[in-house]
Design a protein that fits this description.
Rossmann fold; 7 helices; seven-stranded antiparallel β-sheet; six-stranded mixed β-sheet; 2 domains; single chain; alpha/beta; Elongation Factor Tu (Ef-tu), domain 3
Length: 251
């Protein structure tokens, strides 16, 4: 599906964004609100040096109301040798979800790579402190995969009953999942009540969070100002904005 990219595409090109075309190979209905779509990568992983980093994301282009829209999605299980990966869509109203619901093998979609990156925390944390929701689940899983021997506590905001079926890659010996139903500031309140006892030394703690922009902003401010975590020990991204749909990241 070739989509004109408008002024955003021009800006990304000036910022040396690289364009690729992905082809759908198969789809999976994970839940009624969550769909996984598998692709061939159009040369993306080879161009990235064949070594994708944790939380790696791409900007995918969709057409709606006669104009282009870009949403960002984290690569799921990228395989550089095969040139394949999947994207996972938390379904809601919007152009990306509409495309994902209708996608079939053979369909194509354009994407731009620009802005993605990940810096592993040094010193390595004894425990990952992770805060997210269905939109950031692929990134959460890639983070857990990247630190297979590190303990983790995950606060996971849910919206639907079926979110209990979402595939969080938990190791029962190392990982603790704390589900929080989406309800106003419930996630912010829960994290503020429970996270401080797990931080320990602020200079060696590590918090990774990716929620809606308002929640991410509130918690990032709290972690840095109230708990005194250094900038490099907090990785916060606003993955979606209310009314704009879920993607990764919103910035």
């Amino acid at each position: 599906m070739a989509v004109g990219k408008g002024w955003e595409g021009v800006v990304l090109k000036l910022m040396r964004g690289k364009d690729f075309t992905f082809t759908v190979t198969r789809t999976e209905e994970v839940t009624e609100h969550y769909r996984r779509i598998h692709f061939t990568d159009g040369g993306l992983l080879a161009a990235a040096g064949g070594s994708p980093h944790p939380t790696m994301w791409v900007r995918v282009w969709f057409e709606g109301a006669g104009r282009p829209h870009q949403r960002a999605y984290t690569l799921v299980d990228p395989d550089p040798r095969a040139g394949t990966f999947a994207l996972e869509f938390a379904l809601h109203e919007g152009v990306a979800s509409a495309w994902a619901r209708a996608a079939e093998p053979g369909d194509t979609v354009d994407a731009t790579v620009q802005g993605t990156g990940f810096t592993a925390p040094e010193p390595a944390p004894e425990r990952l402190l992770v805060i997210g929701d269905a939109a950031s689940l692929p990134a959460i899983n890639s983070l857990l995969d990247a630190f297979p021997r590190t303990a983790a506590t995950i606060w996971f905001e849910t919206q639907h009953d079926s979110d209990a079926e979402l595939p969080v890659r938990l190791d029962a010996d190392r990982h603790e999942l704390r589900r929080v139903a989406r309800d106003g500031t419930a996630l912010v309140d829960r994290v503020k009540a429970e996270l401080p006892e797990l931080v320990g030394d602020p200079s060696s703690a590590y918090v990774w969070l990716a929620c809606d922009t308002a929640t991410t902003r509130a918690l990032t401010s709290y972690l840095r100002k109230d708990l005194a975590l250094p900038r490099q020990r907090v990785n916060g991204l606003g993955y979606w904005r209310a009314g704009a749909g879920a993607g990764a990241p919103a910035a």
